[in-house]
Amino acid sequence: xxxxxxxxxxxxxxxxxxxxxxxxxxxxxxxxxxxxxxxxxxxxxxxxxxxxxxxxxxxxxxxxxxxxxxxxxxxxxxxxxxxxxxxxxxxxxxxxxxxxxxxxxxxxxxxxxxxxxxxxxxxxxxxxxxxxxxxxxxxxxxxxxxxx
Length: 148
Known about the structure:
Strand 3 and strand 4 form a beta hairpin. With 148 residues, the protein is an alpha+beta fold. It has helices spanning 10-18, 64-71, 105-117, 121-124, and strands at residues 22-27, 33-38, 41-43, 46-50, 74-81, 90-101, 131-143. The radius of gyration is 15 Å and the shape is globular. Strands 2-1-5-6-7-4-3 form a seven-stranded antiparallel sheet, sandwiched between helices. The protein has a single domain, classed as Electron Transport, Fmn-binding Protein, Chain A (Pnp Oxidase, Chain A, Roll).
């Protein structure tokens, strides 16, 4: 059972929930970093990302991010807004633990949330697919949406 996620300010939660893509950083057992863009859903303090059917070179369970999480579950996810107007820049950095959910009610709920957020998942998400859960331990928010 995962520890409870950190409590987040409602503005931070709204920012995370409303964005479409994040950048997931994992590292292997030796600490070699690996960063990729991911689709995700945010729910009650947790972040979920499915191992979907987008074209890949290897089976989903052999992806570098999956191998890394099995060797080293510490991850980071950055959700951000970039703008040429630099006073509009913002990001949320989530550091925490990742778990691979293979089955169960939580995995099922995550799949439902992902399908609701991304219409592409009607075709690109295999029913019952493995899903990554990120349990935040530390969250840093920066930028205009979070200024006091």
